[in-house]
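Lab notebook, bench 4. We co-purified these components, and the gel suggests they stay together. Before we commit to crystallization screens, I want a quick structural picture of the whole thing.
Request: model the full complex, all chains together.
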Amino acid sequence: MTSYSSSNKNYSKILHETVTKNYKKRMIINKLVTVFTIVCVIAAIIPLGSILLEVVKNGASAISFEFLTQPQGSIGSGRGGVGPAIQGTIIVVGLASLIAAPVGVLAGIYLSEFAKEGMFANSVRFFNDVLTGLPSIVIGIVGYVIIVLSIGSFSVFAGAVSLSIIMIPIVVRVTEETLKVVPFSLREAGHSLGISKAKITLSIVLPSAKNGILTGIVLAISRIAGETAPLIMTILGTSLFFTGITGPVDALPLRIWRLASQPYESAHAFGWGSALVLILMILAMSVGLRFLAQRRSFKAAF
Amino acid sequence: METKETVPKRDSESKDAVPEGNSETRKTTIEASTEKFKVRIQNVNGWYGSKRAIKDVNLDVKEKSVTAFIGPSGCGKTTLLRCLNRMHEMTPGAHADGRVVLDGIDIYDKSIDPVVIRRRIGMVFQKPNPFPTMSIFDNVSAGLRLNGMRNKTIIREIVEESLKNAALWEEVKNQLEQPGMSLSGGQQQRLCIARALAMQPEVLLMDEPTSSLDPIGSSKIEELVRILKDSVTIIIVTHNMQQAARVSDFTAFMYLGDLIEYGSTNQIFMKPEKELTERYISGKFG
Amino acid sequence: MTSSSSKNSRYISSLFVVRKKRGDHLFYGLVIGAAAYTLLMVGLVGFSVTRGSVDIFLAEGIEFVFQSNWNAVEGREAFGAFPYIIGTLLSSAIAMLSSAIAMAIGVPISLGIAIFISEIAPPRIGTPLSFITELLAAVPSIIYGLWALFVFRFWVRDLIEKPLYDAFGGSIPFFAKTPFGLDIFTAGIVLAIMIIPIISSICREVMRVVPDSQREAAYSLGATRWETVRMAVFPYVKSGIVGAAMLGLGRAVGETILVTMVIGNVIGPSAIPTSFFSQGQTLASLVANEFNEASSDLHLSALIALGAILLVLTMGINVVARLLVKKKIKVSSGAKSQ
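Here is the predicted assembly.
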């Protein structure tokens, strides 16, 4: 091994010169980039702030007991409310969740616990991903062609199925990801005790992943609660309350759209009010569901 | 070439050659010594949030020597090392106070930009971290290009010299365009050393540089350190006491954030003054 | 152990085995059925879109894709998808213009946000900030549409469009038409706002996976923060960023209700946008507009065919995007584990 080269004295000087020369420029560029990123963040926050502000500002004044429970009065009269839409949202979203949550979780369990590799599992994963990226209008088409045309009418069922098509891939993904994080040692312990795979999954693995999966479900429900396009083609929207699973129904996103398209101030006000109600409902649902989950795990801890 | 630094004689009052750190008993003056101190650590505290990881450390590092920081896990030796090039404060919530004087300039002074300091004080990490998307050549020259050096000839010369000084040149001189990650672990670490050396640092900080390497790789790096110290002041953190004994001229022993004892390596290992030091050296705790 | 007691224990344990198997089988059947349902859904999508659009393709053939007429009047029916394909691509390009404008604005801004949260801001600020951007992603597009229709379009018209029109309206054809806020430009900008959270959170994810040791290496050489990002982080995440951008693009392309509320809703050859301030139409927005009033089966088929074209477009973009992002995260975490 040679000894340390002694020409370093010159290089040191050269380097020092270069460093000093460029220092200022580099510092300025660094500052500029920092400023740019901050501007970007502000640019993103402003719309959010404005949206929340406008919804609350314009929507709060429209809300009343009548608004929440009555169907709409004659167009342009400013009377009545969006009761049917609220009811419809709860029914359709609720039904969709009832379909999507179990199917999604089960499929996620399959992908995580039963078949990590293999053509079937991989194609399920792949197409699941494809589904998450589908335009909602296409989902509406599916609901229309498959259900509306078969049953013969726009219906709650069609809307629920369409929304479930949007929701399932999200739940599958979240479930698989969450289950993957559960340490393998838990499963190993179950196996070594001779417990069947079904029981291991249901009693051991799933409970420890409960929070993550629930969060995913809540997120998925929030997503579909705000979807409009599929509803246009499946539930039609009416001014009546729920008449049956095979009949049309109204929902908040749809109603907002229709109200916004009308030229009357009162309709617009109703639109803002509905938007506020929708946001509050989504918020309440996500907080409520998560709270319920915490409580149960709290109790279990004692 | 500097004269070879003499190892203080064992039985004399040679402890005077380097002042002890943090001792309540005595602080020897340094005017008598003719050797310079490259880095003077004065009353340095290092914090992680509200937890004080290193407490009031005082230590003078001799120029062109190898100083080792040893101590059990969690004693603060790595934290102290990272305070020397102001990397410690990069951890969220971490900060340090005190003075670290490099050639008369306190690097913690408000007017000093850490970016500048890190040019003069280089660092090599525990796990080799070459830039994976860059070739060997580009890895070594990364720091140079960063600082705006454009002259291709000079860059080439510096790269060659740095690789030679890191004892890697012969092995890679015909494959400089290969990706940095294609080398073995020991080679990657020498690549990182070359990368640090290319910046012509005056001080080289090494954080357990051989702990992820096999014995042959480790010994190559230890050999390297012994040669490099003729031109660069080296401070090395190691959890391997024998390595410290083999490689360093001065050793600082730390425990739970305090600097317990600091002196020439011979003295620390042969005649430790503090009982704690003696117990650590003889392996009574780890 | 005598032979009789071993026979007993074998009998008993075989009982357990049988019972286990039945419950296990049922569960297995459930999960595999659920997984298969995913494939079924995909099949349903393909089937319904094909069946619904068969009529128009039979009537007009592939010409449908390139034609511009849109006439629903009985007897003189003619439908063409061309203007809306352009409209879709354009608005997405704005969002990525109405998809292109979104991208041109959205990608840099998303990157800026991602860099800020990931590299610059201390966790105290970074965590709530990323929460806020997630909130943005959670706002239903109908509410974006509402806000854009009644509030934002005036901002755009007065703060951006009018000045641009006054300055360049005569000279540059891109700014030619009189702006009144409901046009491709506004649609593009609102789309950009909508996809920014998506793109930036993915960018942030791929940046997070970059090992800290890389950043430390750069800093120890005396790099500034931006230089560290450029040297240590970017090489890892380049294709991840492209993938994120394309995911955002996919979302912008498929967005329906928001676009239909602000894009101005024109049909036929005039729907081919000639300037940023033209009213326009996208594939999705037209379907949403006309679906409930479709006058004939052929009309309906044409609308569904628009959906088919949109489907093909979106799928292509999304598949490429997912592959890119997945590859990047795998590479980074592979390197991290070294």
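The first helix of chain B runs from residue 77 to 84. Worth comparing against the SEC data before the next meeting. DSSP finds ten helices and ten strands in chain B.
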